[in-house]
Amino acid sequence: MTTLHAEIAAVTDRVIERSKVGRAAYLDLIRRERESGNDRPKLGCANLAHAYAGTDEQREELKSGTRMNIGIVTAYNDMLSAHAPYYRYPEQMKIWALEAGATAQVAGGVPAMCDGVTQGYQGMELSLFSRDTIAMATAVSLSHRVFEGAALLGICDKIVPGLLMGALRFGHLPMVLIPGGPMRSGLPNKEKAAVRERFAEGKATREELLEAEIAAYHGKGTCTFYGTANSNQMMMEAMGLHVPGAAFANPQTKLRQELTRAAVHRLAEIGWNGDDYRPIGHVVDERAIVNAAIVLLATGGSTNHLIHVPAFARAAGIVIDWEDFDRLSRVVPLMTRVYPNGSADVNQFEDAGGPSFVIKELLRAGLMHGDALTIAKDGMAAYGRKPDIVEDALVWTEHGATSNDENIVRTVETAFSPEGGFRILKGNIGRACIKVSAVERERWIIEAPARVFSDQSEVLAAFKAGELERDVVVVVRFQGPRANGMPELHKLTPQLGVLQNRGFKVALVTDGRMSGASGKVPAAIHLSPEALGGGPIGKVRDGDIIRLDAEAGVLEALVPAEEWNAREHAAAPPPAIGTGRELFAMMRHYCDEAEKGASAMLHEAGL
């Protein structure tokens, strides 16, 4: 077996040490839950009758109480392209469960909003807390205690982390994540981005922009750029929660169908009545969390996971922080160029080798925990093989020594960069993170006057008025989780990109989030402490010189200390209402900071 890299071992030890108390309590919880045994025989007859009343074809099998009953938690809706394929999954999965000697029922549904639809509008302020809502809905779905395992149907940004957060509170159950795959390639992402920038400059009409967007987002499946949704799938492979290679098979293909069938069959095999019991609470351990962080860095994945990984780790009693990510980023090479870190989309990434090639290489080089428990029989090694249909059967094959396209995926030795794409920034403004994998090296250091805003619409108005035609650090505050739910500010990307294209030094500093599609403009995001409640970003004034230095890990307002310390904090805008935002006031009030996962639910649960 390859020796694990010393720094990865050290970071893992750091995670284990800080997690000792919480992890021990968590394992004790799921042990107690497991020891309560199969709950169905203990339920009253009226309770069981209610649980079985909705099914005809499986009632006799359910009555016997001898088969594993799989609870399906689904995020299906047909407004969200990535989740539209799930429409027929439950009825198919019930058939496949019977094939495997099990039964299956839809345990419940969870909400699944599309950030692509709400981006830049009021609904985006519900986005982050939809994750906690999904976690709670997952718990409600599994609370009936008539299931011996669960299949989680979800793909996109907040949905997978939310499903995991809820599912891990039922950690004694074996579970599998079942994705639906990306839509086929449409208009290339760089061409789409170019039209957006032309529209921002007034050089393209709304009709031209709409035509480009529809050509890019044109069918069922996840969007084809490497944002939060597709980063989710990469991490689920590395955590051993998929059937190996399930991430990027397209919807409505034989391969996709057989991978889903295999997931149901495998779930039936790892139940607690057999000799291969693999509960999700044991699969998701410290090694799995570190593996998730490693593949995120190796592929230049979404910055949103600097919030989501700490959140679902906490649900399993594990503590990981941004320092761990920063240290891992120094030794994990950037092995892919997938948009926004390159021109390829995820279908081209899959064709070039995909997640399995990346995992195979990381394991070979001792840059992942190869001994981590997974749902697959062969452990992590299985995730380094590529699935295919050969003579109508699902098989997995070994990769060659190199990828199919070295412009997209490379080996560890020939990586695009010897380091991953993440840095921590610290200074008198606070503590932030920055994704630099798509930022040209000469833009890693920006020093320019600040222009301060309290809403992204103000930034767009200033851009339109020509007020930002200079070197500028755009500071957008009161965008943190407690202020307004921490919306993504992706709608600013075209305008900031235009300014950068015109030769100006440009950066963004915010206590909000940036999209998983954040790219070429340096952005110090998730700034903590946030402005609401007295975070120092509230002291920044128009004209202050801001230094963002990703090389040295510095984020400073170059203001004399005496003057800085004497400054008053800016007044917070009043809480917004409308579009249901007022219903989430309790979550905003009780949530913790971004580095801990920006969760009210976990904070109030004492996790």
Automatic annotation (TrEMBL):
Keywords recorded for this protein, A-Z: 4Fe-4S, Carbohydrate metabolism, Gluconate utilization, Iron, Iron-sulfur, Lyase, Metal-binding
Give a Pfam family name: ILV_EDD_C
Which pathway does the record list? Carbohydrate metabolism; Entner-Doudoroff pathway
EC number(s) for this protein?
4.2.1.12
Q: How is the cofactor bound?
A: Binds 1 [4Fe-4S] cluster.
GO terms for cellular component? cytosol
Dihydroxy-acid/6-phosphogluconate dehydratase C-terminal domain location, by residue? 407-598
* Top-rank taxon, per record: Bacteria
Cross-referenced InterPro entries: 6-phosphgluc_deHydtase, Dihydro-acid_dehy_C, DiOHA_6PGluconate_deHydtase_CS, ILV_EDD_C, ILV_EDD_N, IlvD/EDD_N
| Catalytic reaction equation(s) | 6-phospho-D-gluconate = 2-dehydro-3-deoxy-6-phospho-D-gluconate + H2O
Matching entries from SUPFAM superfamilies are given as: IlvD/EDD N-terminal domain-like (SSF143975), LeuD/IlvD-like (SSF52016)
Please name the GO terms of the biological process aspect recorded for this protein, alphabetically: D-gluconate metabolic process; Entner-Doudoroff pathway through 6-phosphogluconate
Give cofactor(s), names only: [4Fe-4S] cluster
Q: Which family does it belong to?
A: Belongs to the IlvD/Edd family.
Q: What does this protein do?
A: Catalyzes the dehydration of 6-phospho-D-gluconate to 2-dehydro-3-deoxy-6-phospho-D-gluconate.
What is this protein identified as? Phosphogluconate dehydratase
